[in-house]
Design goal:
This protein has 177 residues and is mostly helical. It has six helices and two strands. The protein is 81% helix and 2% strand. Strands 1-2 form a two-stranded antiparallel sheet.
Length: 177
C-alpha cells in the first residue's frame, strides 16, 4: 500500500474521530494532518494492525490538542482575572479619591447647617443612635428629632444636587460629578 492509498483509506475515519473529539472542524483538520505526518514518518509498513495503530495516533493527537486548548484557556482566564483585578484596583483607587473629596465636601456642607441639625445628624449617623435615644440625650421630643433629621437631609440633598448639576472642581483640578 502506498502513502496515497493509506491516506485515502483512513483519512475520513481519522477526520471524523478528530472532529468528534475536538468539536471544531479547523482543529480536526489540523489534527488529522498531524496524524498522517506522524504515520508517514514511522515505518508503518511493518505494523500488523494498521487501522488500530492509526486510530491510537489520532486519539493521542486529539488528547494533546485538548490539553493544549485547556492550557490556553486557563492562561486566558488567568490573564482575564489579572486584567479584571487591575481594573478593579484602578477603579477602587479612583473611587477612594472621589470619596475623600466627596467626604471633605460633605463635611464642609454639614458644618454650614444649624447646630441643632448637625447634632441630630451626628448622633444618628455617626453615633448610630436611634431616634428615641437622640430625643433622650437632647431632651427633645422624638418628632422634633425626626423633623430635624429630615430637614437637614433635605438641605444636604439639595446642595448635592446643585453641585452635581453644575459640577465641582476638586483641589486637584479634576471635575467631580
Amino acid at each position: 500500500m502506498t502513502e496515497h492509498e493509506l491516506f485515502n483509506t483512513y483519512n475520513k475515519e481519522v477526520y471524523r474521530t478528530c472532529l468528534y473529539m475536538l468539536k471544531n472542524s479547523q482543529d480536526a483538520e489540523d489534527a488529522c494532518h498531524d496524524v498522517f505526518v506522524t504515520v508517514f514518518r514511522q515505518d508503518w509498513s511493518k505494523v500488523q494492525h494498521l487501522r488500530a495503530w492509526i486510530m491510537r495516533i489520532a486519539m493521542n493527537q486529539c488528547l494533546n490538542v485538548i490539553k493544549r486548548n485547556k492550557t490556553k484557556t486557563r492562561k486566558q482566564e488567568q490573564l482575564q482575572v489579572l486584567h479584571d483585578q487591575e481594573a478593579l484596583f484602578k477603579r477602587s483607587v479612583d473611587s477612594i479619591a472621589i470619596a475623600r473629596a466627596s467626604f471633605a465636601e460633605m463635611e464642609e456642607m454639614l458644618h454650614k447647617l444649624p447646630d441643632k441639625q448637625i447634632s441630630v445628624l451626628t448622633l444618628r449617623y455617626i453615633g448610630d443612635l436611634s431616634v428615641p435615644e437622640i430625643a433622650q440625650i437632647l431632651n427633645i421630643p422624638e418628632g422634633t428629632v425626626r423633623s430635624r433629621i429630615h430637614k437637614a437631609l433635605k438641605i444636604l440633598r439639595r446642595k448635592l444636587e446643585h453641585q452635581n448639576t453644575f459640577g465641582v472642581r476638586g483641589e486637584n483640578g479634576f471635575e467631580l460629578h
